[in-house]
Amino acid sequence: MTTVANRSKAGRAGDAPPARPTRRRTRPGTGTSRPWLLLLPALVVMAGLLLWPMVQVVLLSLQNFGLRELVTGRTRWIGLDNYTALLSDPNLWQIVLPNTVVFAIVAVLATVVVGTLVALLLNRLGTVSRGLVTTAILVAWALPAVTGTYVWVFLFTPGDGIAVQALDAIGLLDATTANPFADRVSFYVIALLNVVHHGFPFVALTVLAGLMTIPNELNEAAVIDGAGAWRRFWSLTFPTLRPVFAVVTVLSTIWDFKVFTQIYLMPGGDGVNRSVLNLGTWSYVESFAQNKYGLGAAIAVLLTVVLLVITMGYLRLLFKEDEL
Amino acid sequence: MSRTGSRGVRRIGVAVLAAAALAVAGCSSGGGDQAPAGGGPVNGAGQTLRMWIMEGTNPDPKPYVDELSAAFEKQTGAKLEVEFLQWKTGHDKFTTAIAGGTTPDVAEVGTTWLSEFGTAGAFADLTQRVESAGLGDGLVKGLEEAGRIDGSLYGLPWYAGVRSVVYRKDVFAELGINPPTTWAEIVAAGQKIKAAKPDMLPFPIAGDNEFAVYPFVWAAGGDIATKNGDKWVAALDTPQARAGIQFYADLALKNGFSTPAAATWRETDLRDAFTKGQAAMIISGNWTPKALVEAAPELQGKIGAFSLPGENGGLAPAVLGGSLLSVFEGSKNQDLAWELVKLMGTGEFAEKWSTSSGYFPGTTALLQQAAQSTDPLVAPFAKQMVDAGRAVPVSPAFGQIQAKKTVATMMRSILTGEQTVEQATTAATAEMNTLFSSS
User: Fold this and answer.
1) For B62-74, what is the mean pLDDT?
2) Residue of chain B whose Cα is closest to the Cα of A183
3) ipTM score
4) What is the pTM assigned to this prediction?
5) Fewer Cβ atoms within 10 Å of its own Cβ: the N or the C terminal residue of chain B?
6) Chain A CB within 8 Å of residue B23 CB
7) CATH, residue B27
8) Where do the DSSP E strands lie in B128-260?
């Protein structure tokens, strides 16, 4: 990205920097090969750890690969059958994708909004209170997803959960008959609370780091010009922190899209309640739990493609063409 | 380029040859020159055998493992290395070990896993060894059934468990109720409890608890699936099976013995409700009474058990679950491994395991002994197991059906009122048949 930007800027300026050709003349070839040489160790490691498994996953997705193949080491190529089976499953279109996409959109929005609000709050606090609040939200972040999920499940336990009792007290539901995990919407509301609770600290701290780089003079100048808090956020803070928001949004999207633990551990989330399956739990139940590894690989490939497309869309949206 | 290429190829060739040589050497030292199975003791001096056991079956397995290792080393000279696996992650661990070639020599295998991994060729055929050791006739039938694939035996029955009903003796005594012996009596008992103790759940029905459903299906004359030739056909949509499921669901729906929350409960939630003093009767395993009292010491002396009755008396057939001991096909020490399996699955050590774990042994001789027990928290289970123990369909597809939670899904949608018994059983049968025919 940076090289492209530099070059285009240089091109616009009209004259190429003279240092480069000079260096090239003295040591032919090294100018272009040296960066690659320096990058080589990292690239080799990346290829070994990322590229090779990805190639394997794609190959696996074209096979009928179960326990028998695992034991014997034989391969059965079936072309695109796994993909056809997946894409023709009505559950995918009626339940799994809507659950996943709607949940991801809402969760990303909520996480980023809550995280930004907390960051703005932290930015205004004094050292001591900032330390206190930071510690408090770090605890939420440090909590493993499994533990956090059990806490939320515990709060909403039908009958005697604290949250259920509270909702009963204000007359929103009847604690003796209600089961918040049985219904699709209430199930995902609880999952949303859990995921946002677990995800917002990262956003808050990242945005706070960005906020602290904005010179105070800018803010003061805006105040003198008569800009309110709302105006200052959208005209000053947001444009400055756009790269930060891009990073937290993309990362949150990836995390919330493939959320698994938080759903799987909730009552009914492990496939018993079919109406709450999402991509993560569905792919686990359909492939790995049933030893259909080829099918699981196909789901992984599809998920990667979908996430790539979404991420690219985001980046285009957040950066104007010339900034890329 | 071409030079490095050919050198690379040559190197790979050497490596393959070396590997092949090692493999051949491994075979000859492992299998061929040992004493034949059933003959004299196998000499395993200087060797180490690896074994996987499931955690949680036995509350404190350490003394058993120590004694076993000592006895095994004395008998064969080989050392024993035991690793404990969680039930939850055990299945994945088996799979990854098979993929990575890091399987142990011996493993405890749950009854429902055996056909899955066995059909895939992961285990060694033990038929010949079991026969020549004279063990063929003394195995507990339900477990042996689970261990057989196409007539061959791939695991030696180790221990078994069964579910009956655990109830509150004090509540029954207070209200003058006798342990039910028919389905009508279950309903009558529940109604009495409901009237006298409105805060108590007389008989909670957990949605995600398939092993509690099957006894009612079987007792009503239905079946989970029937075998036609070598093909399984799901049978939950027969009138008999539906009647059983209807009765079971009606304990919650019509009689109100349960709570709507239980639609998403698992078996463990039933036990939680019981230890919190909220439930009067639960379907529970023979291994649980001890743990229930440990979790709620105030229930000491207030817990009883009765065999789950059939509709008009007798016993309802109950799912016989448990584990077998299998030798991995990848083991280089199959003779030695079999010695270990034999040591654990018969005689002194089999008895030790069952007494310390609270499960029933896998050989009929030992099981008969256990069935004589007069312990009121053992006898009802023993009776249910010996007289009415039954196996779930032995097919890899049934493992898939369990993984897909087909029956739990069915029960959940019945208990939440989303579907009628007829609709839910039709859907479950269709899904089961798809899986039976695809594997």
Assistant:
1) 92
2) B416
3) 0.76
4) 0.81
5) N
6) no
7) 3.40.190.10
8) 148-149, 152-153, 156-161, 163-168, 225-228, 231-234
